[in-house]
Design goal:
It comes from Nitrosomonas eutropha (strain DSM 101675 / C91 / Nm57). This protein is α/β, with parallel strands linked by helices and 460 residues long. It is 33% helix and 24% strand. Helix 13 links the parallel strand 23 and strand 24. The radius of gyration is 22 Å and the shape is globular.
């Protein structure tokens, strides 16, 4: 089958393209922004990329157009497809029909921690010799790629297991259900649930309904693994549940305790399962670990083996990733963009470094952040930082007013170069600079590293 993917450079659609190519399909695609690293990854897979949505792509005559949710009515290529009555479908629908059919799907959903938990789960299954396929919205460092089909016996047989990061964002302009309802998981993880995606959901109740749609399709012989501390998820389950449930974070389910030597003692229903030794930071990662262990156990991996696997887990790129150390100044890159994620990320770093200074650098660029939904809770989420630098370029609300309670700790900038200069001036040996954005931040990481190097060279 030849598929042509509209919006191919998105994380999900790019991963789908790689999987389809590996499954033997002919894959081409287009996007408005064809640039590395996704463009490089796709071209390395011999996938032809076209810049833009020109109508002459109809002449490629694929068997099917696969449409990403970035595409809207008015898109010239989409309008031509509709006018010509050509076959099209969404990315999640195509994935479910062609690559997930007859596989044991383990889906990880939630506002926070989907990528990390999916990566942990895939690694545990891999460590146990189950060779899972996966599609994850990040790059697990244990694998070095975001998607694979998952073969056993060389390239002859597909592994029965497939791990997928189950996003609640909408499927396509013609299918406003959340992506995850297409995946039909046997094992479903519900990590947590807060309001997000204000561009498509009017309120938290609307997201709860989508999560309940997911709960409705998990079979009776499946398992739902749910954060027992999350009241919103309890409301979701109270709408109706027909599947066994295991909870984590509570005494009657999976529990984790940090010991004096910073090792993690893990129990299930009060029974010790093992001791986890790792270097990941924060309570959020401890909860992610419990969810991954529970899901892997459902797939047949004993908890002690799962704990052993996690001791070798290397985390995900852009999750507290150390990008460099210049003159004893540590620079980290993190994907945090929701106030809860910002707060937990800072708390984890604070636990690790003690009283050392934290310089938090934030780009509030998500759609929900740009709409100002979280402006009242943003300042509190940054309290753990000693100094805050916020890039408020093209924001539709007054960031400075939102951060007033931080007083002189907050430094607001509308020019990236000026912000880099301010950070390099403020940074001192022993500082930890935490950069948080769900985008590329205009290459800030490398620019800041270069600026710090140049400052040191000039002063020496």
């Amino acid at each position: 089958m030849h598929i042509h993917i509209l919006g191919i450079c998105g994380t999900f659609m790019g991963g789908l393209a790689v999987l389809a190519r590996a499954a033997g399909h002919t894959v081409t695609g287009c996007d408005a922004n064809v640039y590395p690293p996704m463009s490089t990854q796709l071209r390395d897979q011999n996938i032809e990329l076209i810049e833009g949505y020109s109508t002459d792509q109809i002449k490629l005559a694929p068997d099917l157009f696969v449409v990403g949710n970035v595409v809207t009515r008015g898109n010239p290529l989409m309008e031509a497809i509709l006018d010509a009555h050509l076959p099209y479908t969404s990315g999640p629908q195509w994935l479910a029909q062609h690559l997930l059919h007859n596989r044991w799907v383990l889906a990880v959903a939630g506002t926070h921690g989907k990528t990390t938990t999916s990566s942990m789960l895939a690694w545990i299954l891999e460590y146990a010799g189950l060779a899972p396929g996966f599609l994850i919205g990040g790059v697990p460092e244990n694998f070095g790629l975001s998607a694979r089909l998952g073969h056993i016996d060389g390239e002859q047989t597909l592994s029965p297991f497939f791990v997928i990061e189950a996003d609640e964002y909408d499927t396509a302009f013609f299918d406003k259900r959340s992506k995850f309802v297409h995946y039909q998981p046997k094992t479903a993880v519900l990590n947590n649930l807060e309001f997000d995606h204000a561009d498509i959901f009017p309120d938290l109740a609307a997201i709860e309904r989508q999560f309940h749609h997911l709960v409705r399709i998990v079979p009776r012989n499946g398992l739902i693994i749910v954060n027992g501390c999350d009241e919103t998820l309890q409301r979701v389950l109270h709408q109706g549940c027909w599947t066994p449930v295991e909870k984590f974070g509570v005494d009657e389910g999976w529990q984790i305790t940090t010991e004096h030597d910073q090792s993690q003692s893990i129990r299930f229903q009060g029974e010790p399962q093992g001791i986890l030794h790792w270097e990941l930071l924060g309570e959020h990662n401890r909860m992610n670990a419990l969810a991954a262990l529970a899901a892997a156990r459902h797939a047949g991996v004993p908890a002690p083996l799962g704990i052993e696997a996690l001791s070798h887990f290397k985390n995900v790129k852009r999750r507290m990733e150390l990008r460099g150390i210049i003159h004893d100044i540590h620079i980290y890159d993190d994907f945090a963009h929701h106030p809860t994620a910002i707060q937990t990320t800072l708390a984890g770093l604070r636990d690790k470094i003690g009283s050392a200074r934290i310089l938090a650098v934030l780009e509030p660029r998500s759609n929900t952040m740009k709409l100002g939904v979280w402006q009242d809770s943003l300042a509190a989420s940054l309290n753990q930082a000693d100094q805050v630098f916020c890039y408020a370029h093209q924001m539709g609300w007054d960031v400075a007013s939102a951060l007033t309670s931080l007083s002189n700790k907050a430094d607001i900038h509308h020019d990236l170069s000026a912000m880099i200069s301010a950070i390099t001036t403020a940074a001192q040996p022993g500082d930890h600079i935490l950069i948080m954005s769900n985008g590329s931040f205009n290459g800030l990481y490398d620019k800041l590293l270069d600026a710090l190097r140049n400052q040191i060279n000039l002063s020496s």
